[in-house]
Each structure stands twice: as C-alpha cells, then as structure tokens.
C-alpha cells in the first residue's frame, strides 16, 4: 500500500468509544483500534508509543492526521489536544479529517468505490450522518455534508446505499483521507 508522501504520518481518532490509531512510513503501515469507552486520555499516549515501538520507529512523525468528530466533547478534545501537543514537540503538521470519513471502509480491507452513507448515533433518535462518493477507499466527493438529523431523515437520504453506522473508525481510512485532502484549518465537531 502506498500512502505516505512524508516519511512518517500518525493518524488518531478519539471521537467515538474507540481509540483508533494508524501509522504509515516508507516501510509499512500499522493500524490499531480498541474500544476504550471514556478512557481515551488514559490510553492514547501508551498506545501511540506502543505503535511506534512495534514498527521499530523513533517516537516522531512529520504529519499527524486527527479525526475532528463529531463525537463527545471530552473525547474529541482529548485527541485534538494530544495531537497538537505532539505536533508542537515534533514540529509536525496537523491535518484534520471528519471522523465520519474514518467510517468509510469495506469488509476485510476491501477498498470501497461508489456512494456510501456513514453515521454516528447523536442520541434521542438522531444521527450525525453524511453521504460520500468514494474511490478506492478514499472520500472523493461530499454528496451530503455531515449534519445532525433524525434517523428517519437520514435513512431516507441513504436508501439503497451501503451504510456504516457506529463502528470503530478505520485508521487506514483516516490516513488515506488525511493524506488525500486533510485540512490544516480544521475545527472540532461535537455530537
């Protein structure tokens, strides 16, 4: 898999109950995800250090891709704060990607193509959802921008499309989106 125009890129997302990490460098790719509930702050530093150690790389990256939400206020801010702290120490660039783009994934690593609906539970019968056109596992076009809406409205909008709902974000999808079109002028989004 060819992903990295910079020597080392770290991706992380803490917007959902999952802690999702990915690391790409010229010699390979590593991804890691675990359900941590609300323990992102306690787990992120150790998990990142472990990911770099498993890759036999020094703890340093030239770019960090951050999942910007939507998600819980605390979860989203933990990831952003950690990424910004690392970036300051490492002199790295931080690019943001909506967490919903991390939900664009196929079964068993299949790179999706076509229109895909993704959503996260926003409570009280609502979802935060989007519809994307995907090419080889990367969002190529936003068909319906991420927004909070009722589940019924979103199901109507997403009728007939593959729909990924409330799963763990894919570290590889976050990496691909960040490298393809991540923005340095990102903003956080909360449920």
Total domains: 1
| Low-pLDDT sequence parts | none
CATH architecture assignment name: 2-Layer Sandwich
Determine the fraction of residues in helical runs and give it as a percent range.
Answer: 25-40%
Identify the overall geometry: globular
Strand content: 35-45%
Regarding CATH, which class? Alpha Beta
Rg from Cα: 16 Å
Mean pLDDT: 90
At the fourth level of CATH, the homologous superfamily is ATPase, nucleotide binding domain
State the end-to-end CA separation.
Answer: 33 Å
Count of helix runs: 4
- CATH topology: the name is Nucleotidyltransferase, domain 5
Biggest β-sheet strands, sense, barrel: 5 strands, mixed
What class, by secondary structure content?
alpha/beta
Number of strands: 9
Cross-sheet strand order for the largest sheet: 3-2-1-4-5
**Which H/E pattern describes the elements?**
EEEHEHEEEEHEH
């Amino acid at each position: 898999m060819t992903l990295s125009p910079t020597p080392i890129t770290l991706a992380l997302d803490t917007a959902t109950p999952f802690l999702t990490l990915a690391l790409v460098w010229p010699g390979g790719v590593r991804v890691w995800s675990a359900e941590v509930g609300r323990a992102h702050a306690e787990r992120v530093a150790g998990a990142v250090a472990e990911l770099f150690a498993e890759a036999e790389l020094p703890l340093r990256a030239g770019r960090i891709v951050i999942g910007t939400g939507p998600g819980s206020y605390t979860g989203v801010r933990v990831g952003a704060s950690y990424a910004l702290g690392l970036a300051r120490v490492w002199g790295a660039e931080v690019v943001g990607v909506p967490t919903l783009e991390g939900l664009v994934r196929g079964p068993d690593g299949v790179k999706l193509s076509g229109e895909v609906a993704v959503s996260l539970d926003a409570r009280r019968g609502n979802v935060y959802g989007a519809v994307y056109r995907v090419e080889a596992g990367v969002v190529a076009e936003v068909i319906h921008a991420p927004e909070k809406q009722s589940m019924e409205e979103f199901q109507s909008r997403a009728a007939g499309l593959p729909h990924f709902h409330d799963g763990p974000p894919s570290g590889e999808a976050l990496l691909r989106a960040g490298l393809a079109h991540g923005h340095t002028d990102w903003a956080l989004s909360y449920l």
